[in-house]
Amino acid sequence: MAVTKSPSPKFLRLPKTSSLSQKLMLIGLGLTLFFIFLAFFTPVLQVLGLIQNPSDALANDIHLPPSGKHWFGTSRLGYDVFSRTLFGAQAALQVVFLATALSMVVGVPLGMLSGYIGGRLDKILLFIMDSIYTLPGMLLSVTLAFVVGRGILNAAIAISIAYIPQYYRVVRNHTVSVKTEVFIEAAQAMGANTWQVLSKYLFFNVIQSVPVLFTLNAADAILVLGGLGFLGLGLPESVPEWGHDLRQALEALPTGIWWTALFPGLAMTLMVVGLSLFGEGLNEFVNPRLRKQNSIR
After folding, report:
1. Which range, of 16-25, 30-39, 62-71, 185-194, averages the lowest pLDDT?
2. Which of 221, 233, 246, 297 could bridge to 96 as Cys pair (CB 3.0-4.6 Å)?
């Protein structure tokens, strides 16, 4: 008698995606985890004496090319480029994930309230969010950075405002479509109040796209943070940050000093590519239409 294999529970089954999408997603995940690893263990490397303090200028080691002593060379101010590139990953992750988390914490509840309650509240919030969404994100962040000043938290606030409408619109649209379902009407008939409906019945049904938005916004926020640093905004000059280092390197490029711009720029590019690939792959997992299109191809 043949033994039939019982099917795995539904919640353990992963949606099928194309092999190319899976590979790209794994590459993106690997790059993202690599920079997270750098952010956590760079201070340990400094304590062990394996890298220098990124804020210590070396008076006699200015514009040195990459070598065994300085792997990425030194800048025109005498900073070790390798140390500043590693610590730049820490600053980038702190600001970027704080910015995306702030925008998510604000945008998701507002989207649920607006879509569920509707009426005048929905119209007012739609007008505000659409007004913010029409503004260029970089321009809005630069303007807010002038207002709030420098610092990790201030830079995160300046960057996060531009992403709030994205969370709001996605969650609101999902809420509008889900609130007419039978299980929502049953909960209302049983006497569930607004908070209970939102937290117990709506929340887990409308946040499927939020992780995708989080990763894609994080990738975009790295570029925005780099732009703020390049303009002399965002973080204080004493904090290693890739955009600020690129601004300093721009003055040395005409003289053939290429390494001060190459390595911070390469680190920023790889981190953006990693988050973007991971976000796109994650989008295919949670979006059945994309899976169907890729399977047809």
Report:
1. 16-25
2. 221
Rounded to the nearest 10 degrees, how much is the dihedral formed by the CA atoms of 189, 194, 162, 212?
A: -50
Q: From the CB of residue 247, how many other CB atoms can be counted at a distance below 10 Å?
A: 18
74 beta partners: 80
| CA dist., res. 203 & res. 208, Å (int) | 10
Spatial CA neighbour of 152 closest among 236, 232, 217: 236
- pLDDT for position 9: 43
Burial degree of 238 (CB within 10 A; 0-12, 13-18, 19+): exposed
Quick check: helix, strand or coil at residue 207?
Answer: coil
Tell me how far apart the alpha carbons of residues 97 and 268 are, in angstroms, rounded to a whole number: 15
Sign for the pseudo-dihedral over CA of 150, 72, 36, 100: positive
Residue pLDDT, tens place only, 158-168:
999 999 999 99
Is residue 3 over pLDDT 50? no
